[in-house]
Design brief:
This protein has 4 helices and 3 strands; from the N terminus they run H-E-E-H-E-H-H. By secondary structure, it is of the alpha+beta class. It has a 3-stranded antiparallel beta sheet, covered by helices on one side. The radius of gyration is 29 Å and the shape is elongated. The chain starts with a helix and ends in a 6-residue tail after the last helix.
């Protein structure tokens, strides 16, 4: 997956930011919305698309479109950089495949040590009891 090719398929849209901000908020569109259509992507392979759809299932719309917003800064350019970094991070985490776990046997020495320790604790508790004077 080439980062530049993926970013070429991303669409940005500037929107007026919500919330308090005084007179400036009514004039400046500083909020940035990023949309990425996963199904119609030409850059990603079918395997990558399937992997992303399963891993990012809660973040995608019903049409498999990823939508991210950023209105942290007053600068549109900074918001665009922030949302792009977030998008790349989400893609990277979505494409991550964890290694398959190989089950291992418990070593015989560890089993012997556990049983020996159990026996030792049992003997200690036995010695604490009152002697039987029958």
């Amino acid at each position: 997956m080439e980062i530049q090719e993926v970013l070429s398929e991303v669409k940005y849209k500037a929107i007026r930011s919500s919330g308090a901000g005084g007179q400036n908020v009514n004039k400046v569109s500083s909020k940035v919305m990023l949309t990425f259509d996963l199904r119609n992507s030409q850059v990603l392979t079918e395997e990558e698309k399937l992997l992303l759809e399963t891993n990012l299932q809660s973040r995608l719309t019903s049409d498999s479109v990823l939508i991210l917003n950023c209105d942290e800064d007053r600068s549109q350019l900074k918001n665009k950089d922030i949302v792009t970094k977030r998008f790349l991070d989400i893609l990277k985490r979505g494409l991550y495949v964890p290694k398959e776990r190989k089950p291992t046997k418990i070593p015989k020495a560890a089993i012997r040590k556990r049983i020996k320790d159990k026996k030792n604790i049992s003997d200690i508790k036995q010695s604490r009891s009152k002697p039987n004077l029958d």
